[in-house]
Design brief:
Number of domains of chain A: 2
Strand order of the largest sheet of chain B: 1-8-7-2-5-3-4
Strand content of chain A: under 5%
CATH architecture of the largest domain in chain A: Orthogonal Bundle
CATH topology of the largest domain in chain A: Recoverin, domain 1
Order of helices and strands of chain A: HHHHHHHHEHHEHH
Number of helices of chain B: 15
Helix content of chain B: 40-55%
CATH class of the largest domain in chain A: Mainly Alpha
Distance between the termini of chain B: 85 Å
Largest sheet of chain B: 7 strands, mixed
Oligomer: heterodimer
Helix content of chain A: 40-55%
Radius of gyration of chain B: 27 Å
Shape of chain B: flat
Largest interface: A-B, 68 and 65 residues
Order of helices and strands of chain B: HHHHHHHEEHEHEHHEEHEHEHEH
Strand content of chain B: 5-15%
Largest sheet of chain A: 2 strands, antiparallel
Chain lengths: ~200, ~425
């Protein structure tokens, strides 16, 4: 690790990142330190390989999907702002976030954006809908070889049917949100960074 | 260094004199006692003074930072995020309960919200995970005047570094010729190691020396740095097993082979486990041969934990003498991250640390029991070492540093989750 300083001044554009993500300066210093730890060859950005090296992530059945979420639009690298932007979805919701100026863009950790992040994990081709086929594929990731194709198809069919309201055989983001309206998303999709 | 003192030639003279005095002191206090195996209490005093300096320095730095209103980076050894230690089942049930308006006895087989669990767990590992922490140098909460382990520090004590650098040169000129001698008796060998130890200002505390490894056995220890070898070898006679390194280390290894029967392997040979096992067995069965020293973790770990031991050395069937080595990180970070630093850089870092303080515990010998296989035996030895050294006993393979993790662990998670979905399905079809 050597003599790298994680002082806030070392992080480029720290103020704009702070405004965009809502992380405190201290949290950003920690995350930057983490970013540097993952960036083994000190390239200044992370590749898929760097994230795949995290052992505990590799054993997560959805590990690949989560890694994909860091590389939108077919890019192969994620820099520190991009890294933090994804992590910002998991910032706990605090009171100051709720009484927002309506003209300002929605904070990354709003309920809607948290749900959208989860939705993206299902939506493999990013067309804004979870088709039955996509549901099947994600389910297969989660259960591995433990469940038969038939059982899985039944589960996928039932899930899509229950959520699908306009009958197009796929779950749109609105339908997804509706089916999870009672869920305490704010609490379940939040990670608190220690001070 | 002399640019720092641009004024008096008097000061330069003083410096020259002090250097000469230092070297004479070095000679007297290091070489002579090393030959006779006697020690002075000087090093203990040195340690105490250092501790006091560190405490004072940390206070000063915190005060200084408060004045300038800077954010001090305080590393946490327990991770940067708040984690809930609940199991997969409990968490998913929690999630379903909070989102579902259905009656609880009719538990659904799958919910869209199940993904939240995996999602969050995955994100937590990206923010902070146990293993990547193990492989970076251990962070210290207080400061020890080395910029290496504290991120707020911006000035290195130049003079000390240079002085030590000169000391290194002298030691190498002294040691290398000794090593290349044709006839190397055990005592000379031991003396060399002792010199090395003092050269590094290593303060080693040996515990339970009655359990020291005997001939025909295998000595097994956790691995933090090549210095482990020096530390153990200065207190006993061992045959080494290890992989052939290039560069400076290779030269030293070749010299050592001339003196004692060691067993060196190419890294690719190591993959051929049968060959390795055969050679080791031959060595062990010869009762006159020295005990073999093995580090079964396979790679250097940063000395906060003990990773999975490879089972090869435990299959041979000889008596195993476990040894636990624990470094005190306050005085110098002994961890060698071989994917980052070469040998010379590493040695330089070691030489410029204040001191290397460590404890060595010799544990009572263990043999494989009739109903254990090699893996269980390896784990038993590993736990004993971890417990003694106060190190965390981790299940992760040390090979994670170089390879991706095996899929068997992922299957475990998938199995657990499948049981939740499919298990309930069976209940439904019954009712």
């Amino acid at each position: 690790m050597g003599s790298r300083s994680s002082h806030a001044a070392v992080i480029p554009d720290v103020d704009s990142i702070r405004r965009e993500t809502g992380f405190s300066q201290a949290s950003l210093v920690r995350l930057h330190h983490r970013f540097q730890a993952l960036d083994r060859n000190k390239k200044g950005y992370l590749s898929r390989m760097d994230l795949q090296q995290i052992g505990a992530l590799a054993v997560n059945p959805l590990g690949d999907r989560i890694i994909e979420s860091f590389f939108p639009n077919g890019s192969q690298r994620v820099d520190f702002p991009g890294f933090v932007r994804v992590l910002a979805h998991f910032r706990p919701v605090e009171d100051e976030d709720t009484d927002q100026d309506p003209k300002k863009p929605e904070p990354l950790n709003s309920r809607r954006n948290k749900l959208h992040y989860a939705f993206q994990l299902y939506d493999l081709d990013r067309d804004g809908k979870i088709s039955r086929h996509e549901m099947l594929q994600v389910l297969r990731l989660m259960v591995g070889v433990q469940v038969t194709e038939e059982q899985l198809e039944n589960i996928a069919d039932r899930t899509v049917q229950e959520a699908d309201e306009d009958g197009d055989g796929a779950v749109s983001f609105l339908e997804f949100t509706k089916s999870l309206e009672k869920m305490d998303v704010e609490q379940k999709m939040s990670i608190r960074i220690l001070k | 260094m002399f640019l720092l003192l641009p004024f008096d030639s008097l000061i330069v003279n003083l410096l020259g004199i002090s250097l000469t005095v230092l070297f004479t002191l070095l000679l007297v206090f290091i070489i002579v006692p090393a030959i006779f195996g006697v020690s002075f209490g000087i090093r203990k005093l040195y340690m105490k003074t250092l501790l006091k300096i560190f405490a004072w320095a940390t206070l000063r730095m915190e005060r200084g930072a408060k004045e300038k209103n800077h954010q001090l980076y305080k590393p946490y050894t327990n991770g940067i995020i708040a984690k809930d230690p609940t199991s997969l089942e409990e968490e998913i049930k929690e999630i379903r309960r909070s989102g579902s308006s259905k009656a609880l006895d009719n538990t659904p087989e799958f919910e869209l919200s199940d993904i939240f669990y995996f999602c969050r767990k995955g994100m937590e590992t990206i923010m902070d995970d146990e293993v990547t922490k193990r492989f970076s140098a251990e962070e210290l909460e207080s400061w020890n005047l080395l910029s290496r382990t504290n991120y707020n520090f911006q000035y290195i004590s130049l003079r000390l570094t240079v002085l030590w650098g000169l000391g290194v040169l002298i030691r190498y000129c002294f040691l290398l010729p000794l090593r290349f001698k044709e006839f190397m008796s055990k005592h000379v060998h031991l003396m060399c190691y002792r010199i090395c130890v003092r050269a590094l200002t290593a303060i080693i505390t040996y515990h339970d020396r009655e359990n020291r490894p005997r001939n025909g056995g295998i000595c097994v220890a956790n691995h933090t740095s090549p210095i482990d070898v020096i530390i153990l070898a200065s207190d006993g006679y061992y045959a080494m097993v290890g992989q052939v390194h290039g560069g400076l280390m290779g030269v030293i290894q070749r010299a050592m082979v001339k003196a004692c029967p060691h067993v060196w392997f190419e890294r690719s040979e190591v993959k051929d486990r049968h060959l390795v096992a055969k050679r080791l067995t031959e060595h062990v069965q010869d009762k006159s041969k020295l005990p073999i020293l093995i580090f079964p973790e396979g790679t250097c770990i940063n000395n906060t934990s003990v990773m999975m031991f490879k089972k090869g050395s435990f299959e041979i069937g000889a008596t195993v003498y476990p040894v636990a080595i624990k470094y005190d990180p306050q005085f110098g970070d002994a961890f060698w991250n071989s994917s980052k630093y070469g040998m010379v850089t590493y040695l330089l870092r070691m030489m410029t640390s204040w001191a290397i303080v460590c404890s060595v515990w010799y544990l009572p010998p263990m043999t494989r029991e009739a109903d254990e296989d090699a893996v269980q035996f390896a784990n038993r030895v590993k736990s004993a070492i971890a417990r003694q050294g106060g190190l965390v006993d981790l299940l992760w393979d040390g090979g994670l540093k170089r390879e991706k993790v095996k899929d068997t662990f992922k299957e475990e998670q998938q199995k657990l989750y499948s049981k939740m979905i499919v298990g309930n399905h069976e209940d439904r079809s019954r009712s």
